[in-house]
Amino acid sequence: MPGAPAGFPSIATPAVAMTDTLSPAETLMREARAAGSSLTGRLVDGLLERASDDEGRIRHTLLAVCPNSETVTRAALEAAREARAPLLYAATLNQVDRDGGYTGWTPATFASFVEEEIDRLGLDVPVILCLDHGGPWKKDAHVENDLAYEASLKEVQASIRACIDAGYDLLHLDPTVDLRLPPGQPVPIEDIVERTVKLLGNAETYRKAQDKPPIAYEVGTEESGGELQSEDRFCEFLQLLASAIDRENLPRPRFVVGDVGTRLDTSHVNGVRADRLASEARQQIGALLKGHYTDAVDDLAVYPLAGIGGANVGPGLSAAEFNALSDLIDLENRLDATSGFADALRTAVVDSGRWRKWLRPEEAGLAFDDLPDDRRQWLIHTGSRYVWTEAEVAVSRRRLYDNVRPYRDPEAFVHWRVRSEILRYFHAFNLVGLADRM
Questions:
Q1: Closest Cα partner for 205 from 135, 157, 154, 173?
Q2: Where in the chain are the domains?
Q3: What does the angle CA 167 – CA 168 – CA 169 come to, to the nearest 5 degrees?
Q4: CA distance linking residue 151 with residue 153, whole number of Å
Q5: Burial per residue of 219-242, b for 16 or more beta-carbon CB atoms within 10 angstroms, e otherwise
Q6: Among 113-127, 223-237, 253-267, whose mean pLDDT is lowest?
Q7: Could you tell me which residues come within 8 angstroms of residue 97 by beta carbon, excluding any fewer than 6 positions away?
Q8: Nearest residue to 262 via CA among 235, 294, 290
Q9: If you average pLDDT over every residue of the chain, what do you get?
Q10: Which residue, 41, 54, 234, 279, is the most exposed by fewest CB within 10 angstroms?
């Protein structure tokens, strides 16, 4: 059905089918449509209904996987099937966009891929497609091509329309970057609110014009552009946003991104701070707190204990894929075979230039080969997700697989490693069996 999100049945399913036992995905769809809600909204409401105490603390943390490769995307579906848990995909415009992103997927082809995999696996738990960090200058190409603000905004709005057309159910609106300001100067809170409301209003106008079902929204950022790391600024943002959204008669967001102390290369989450932010998000705007950069966190149990309603995981899953491939390279070396995969991967990461975005302040301006060995390795590690689809990387990966195939099933091995990492999150976030219990 046009407009139906990937993995969910049409509301026009024949009446005879509705008399059968409904799957968790069908149940969510039916309840959402009956309530005039998005699928995400109904899922969030279900979590609120299961809140563990009088303060409304959420005891489940929804997992949002960044689809940075076919391997990760497939493994996430396999893990969701095994865990009997709902799954969200949080796709950035770098990953999935009208130009194909670094995965090669547009929103439409990504949605088709997920739907085909759902059918192949016979998956019946909720799977929701989401946009991550939709805002001006949040896509690397917009910065690299030196787009003006209005040009970048126009591109983002076109991408948001493509996401709505493809059946995305949750859109993260993040206008917290403004390259016109001096370095280090945050975007004023009032401007962030105004720009968020503009993006939301444009999305809603288009959704209604296309007769699409309701969708949910996510706002805020963990990054420094809006200086929302300050708890006072976080609360002021929520208060001003709630007033502006209500004034325009727009839907309130279901998630607010908060700085819970995590970064790409850190392992600690601040549970005390997260608890306070989660409480403010619920009280001020009726939304759940979302944590980003969950990849390297050691104590994942903090998330449901602190009432964090959602968490994004991306580079960490690409790292699991990278580590599995490194083990295959070790096996290949023991077999005295050579695919050239490691060299192809390193060359592609360096040539992409994307490693520069992860440089520390003291490393700014250094050439790749001037960096310490451990930093070079880390940058290749985290930058691998940008180049999996590069021609020489893909060709040499196939050679690697062929070289080790007599001694190991390479596809199954890599999928097992990534799937196991995703299952670790499902267990830690108290999601196992949730699709059936809800």
A1: 157
A2: 24-315+425-437, 336-406
A3: 110
A4: 5
A5: bbbbbebbbbbeeeebbbbbebbb
A6: 223-237
A7: 106, 107, 139, 159, 162
A8: 294
A9: 91
A10: 54
| pLDDT band of 186, cuts 50, 70, 90 | confident
Can you read off the two tokens belonging to residue 136?
A: 């001006």
- Helix crossing, 373-383 with 315-334: angle to 10°? 110
Question: pTM for the full model?
Answer: 0.91
Spell out the alpha helix ranges (H) of 20-69: 24-34, 39-49
Give the closest residue to 184 by CA, choosing from 223, 154, 231, 130: 223
Residue 431: CB atoms within 10 Å: 22
Residue 274 tokens read as 């997260």
Domain 24-315+425-437 has CATH 3.30.70.20: no
Beta strands in 69-163 (DSSP E): 87-92, 127-134
pLDDT-derived band of residue 206, with 50, 70 and 90 as boundaries? very high
- Residue 21 is predicted with a pLDDT of 86
Q: Which two tokens stand for residue 324?
A: 């599995």
The residue ranking higher by pLDDT, 357 or 136, is: 136
Give the pLDDT confidence score for residue 91 in this predicted structure: 98
- Provide mean pLDDT across the span 37-61: 84
What are the helix (H) ranges across 335-433? 341-352, 373-383, 391-404, 410-428
Tokens describing residue 95: 């990953």
Q: Using an 8 Å Cβ cutoff, are 339 and 332 in contact? A: yes
Q: Is pLDDT above 70 for 17?
A: no
- Report the pLDDT value the prediction gives residue 122, as an integer from 0 to 100: 97
